[in-house]
Amino acid sequence: MSSFNEFNENVIAEFRANAGKVGGPFAGAELLLLTTTGARSGTPHTVPLGFLRDGGTPLVVASAAGADRHPAWYHNLLARPLVQVETGTEEYEAVAVPAAGAWRDELFARVVHAEPGYGEYQERTARVIPVVALQRTHEAPEEEGGIAGKLLSVHGWLRAQLAHVRELAADGAREAGARGDGAASLGLQLRQHCLAFCHTLEFHHRSEDAGLFPHLAQQHPQMREFFRRVDAEHRVIARLQEELVRALDAIGPGSGSAAGEGFSDGFSEGFSERVERMSRELEGHLDREEAQLLPVLRALGA
To answer: For the segment 224-263, what is each residue's pLDDT rounded down to a tens digit?
Structure first.
């Protein structure tokens, strides 16, 4: 283990053991732990970061002490926007959204006002140092326990996140053809939230197909036709999900004017219509699953 990784591991351990309080060079500083998913490895990576707040939203800065390359955790959150945040007093899930254009410049100016060292880091490098907003996701309450409650919780999360994506897509459709800062910021928000939705949906359906559904089909052979229909619906939704992810390439993973241009082009190609179709297919699918599965799961007491 490198000395840098060992240092981070020690800070993380101290943070978790002392409700977010650490000593040494970070004594008195406000830190959070950010856990991202490796863009290539798919494994979780946790880093301690200083942060500021934009209202109730934490902001973290991908400064890398002024290095010419973005830190690894920033590349991770572009590939997998859904992250875990620990503040010492709470832990929650968030979608990591890089700021762009005027929004980024405004936030970075506030960051530098509070912590002038970040301004020095920016002077060391030609890259634009990203500022990332950690936007807390919808937390669907578990109104009951067991697998039935978990199913409702995941479905509630998917519905809420897709509704947010639809709102962003509708805003984008109204501004189709616009260029510049507003389009860049909205485009990146749409990209990050849509990717978080797609990745979670994909994982949820894979888990059902590989575990829950085969188990229930064995115990309830009369439901096998239902599971065949659900399998067909999963395949349709998977195709729609792939189309959404491909369409997001038009928005682009970076920040700045290129993201704004891609955002406008993507909407001219009917991105919002793809989102609406996904919404119709998924809402019907979730409703049918709940109608058939919840009574069975509740009867099992699972």
So the answer is: 999 999 999 999 999 999 999 888 876 555 433 333 334 4
Alpha helices, DSSP H only, in the chain? 3-17, 72-79, 101-114, 117-124, 146-174, 181-207, 213-219, 224-248, 257-268, 271-300
Instruction: Judge contact between 30 and 115, C-beta under 8 A.
Output: no
Look-up of token digits 């509740």: 298
Contact (Cβ atoms closer than 8 angstroms) between residue 176 and residue 251: no
Per residue in 196-210, pLDDT (tens digit) is 999 999 999 999 999
Phi, psi at 252, each rounded to 5°: 90, 150
The 57-61 sheet, strands edge to edge: 44-50, 31-37, 82-86, 91-98, 131-136, 57-61, 52-54
Burial of 24 (0-12, 13-18, 19+ CB in 10 A): exposed
Question: How big is the CA angle at 19 (ends 64 and 80), to the nearest 5 degrees?
Answer: 45
Please spell the DSSP secondary structure of 50-79, one letter per residue: E-EEETTEEEEE--GGG-SS--HHHHHHHH
Cα–Cα dist 164/289, whole Å: 22
The tokens for 262 are 């891609």
Residue that the structure tokens 């973005």 belong to: 70
CA distance 8 to 18: 15
- Beta-carbon contacts of 37 under 8 Å, excluding residues fewer than 6 positions away, are 43, 44, 45, 76, 79, 80, 82, 83
* Other residues' Cβ atoms within 10 Å of the Cβ of residue 209: 14
C-alpha torsion 76→79→84→87, nearest 10 = 50
Q: Name residue 296's amino acid.
A: V
